[in-house]
């Protein structure tokens, strides 16, 4: 926050009532004349006093056709005609412009022309134009000469704690950047979906739309405006006739509903329009030749994009302050950024899939445990190890930001029973001839021997003795065996009985 802030208006503080509201005779619109010029000269005086010769455009936007609180009608070109090219190249967040061009932007905002932004120099200077000709200037310097100049020009500068517009875009939580992980995830999404729609919001209330495929992703990416907000949507519907889709969707809307309709025209361009019920009939006519369409509600809770991000600067730093609406994917990303391989996490088992994978909620991310990582001991069904609703602690094996996957290991946080058995049997080096003698139960017969359970879900192999050939061992039979060798890596236990030789 800059230490010196001033509210500068044409309204005499003496003409305020007991509630602080202005009751004088000044109109809350620009006079397009000497008072407007006084505002511009005041901004120039503060810039000169601070030593500023250029400013950065921050959070720029254009008023929408549905929300315009200004008292003057929106100007053609939103007041930007002659200041920027027709495609508004160079008018984006972070664009640096000379103070002179900044003053023309201030003029357009004072006239309610339809453009809005703030003008700033980081940690030094800021200009915010509010409603009804209220202007706020903040500086790292007290700018006593500029304050005097404003008064000399007939304006009324008042010191305030801060501009009410300062920090307007500072929201809690971490914004997802469109970094290498984002683009890798998007590319993988396209492999599965074949196509998707990218909404490029380079200005507030203004979007450009792109159909993405694996073939054109790099080309589209190269043409995006700096610091744009990016929202990825499912591809437009092509399965149902457009006129039927539009009619059915619009018929469900009430008189007060406003929706955004996105469609692909005959030339393959993706365009959109925000309309209310009074424009539905006209819109249906415009869409008669559309190839594909989607109707999006404006309420954030009803919009369901796949994921979203904001473009960082070329050096990889995210300096844009505006935010995207978080999707489930973005919330998962925010959690995954805090996770590390080898970290132990606690979560709740939410599902045991029919194919054996166990899914665990670890606080906003659904991680997974593959069958081999559930237990050191053999099992036939994951339900023998975990139950749905059970709270467990597991170790993170990897954090795959591209696939948005977090594999866990439950057995990694448990002692390995084979290692323990090897130590008990005096076979810590997995080789030896002494071994521990135990009693076990035959669980399975094979032509050359049998498997004997010597501990809970730990079976070892024992070969047949010559005396076994006539009758042999029987499943369920209790036998005394010696642990001859344990191969921890292959998860194998070799057993021996009297007259057996050790197995190597």
TrEMBL record:
Q: Which UniProt keywords apply?
A: Ribonucleoprotein, Ribosomal protein
* PROSITE patterns documented for this protein: S1
Database matches in PANTHER family: 30S RIBOSOMAL PROTEIN S1 (PTHR10724), SMALL RIBOSOMAL SUBUNIT PROTEIN BS1C (PTHR10724:SF7)
Give the Pfam families listed for this entry: S1
Signal peptide per UniProt: none
* The protein's name in its UniProt record: S1 motif domain-containing protein
Domain (S1 motif) ranges: 342-411, 435-498
Q: Does the keyword Zinc-finger apply?
A: no
* Superkingdom as given in the UniProt entry: Bacteria
What is the organism of origin for this protein? Catenulispora yoronensis
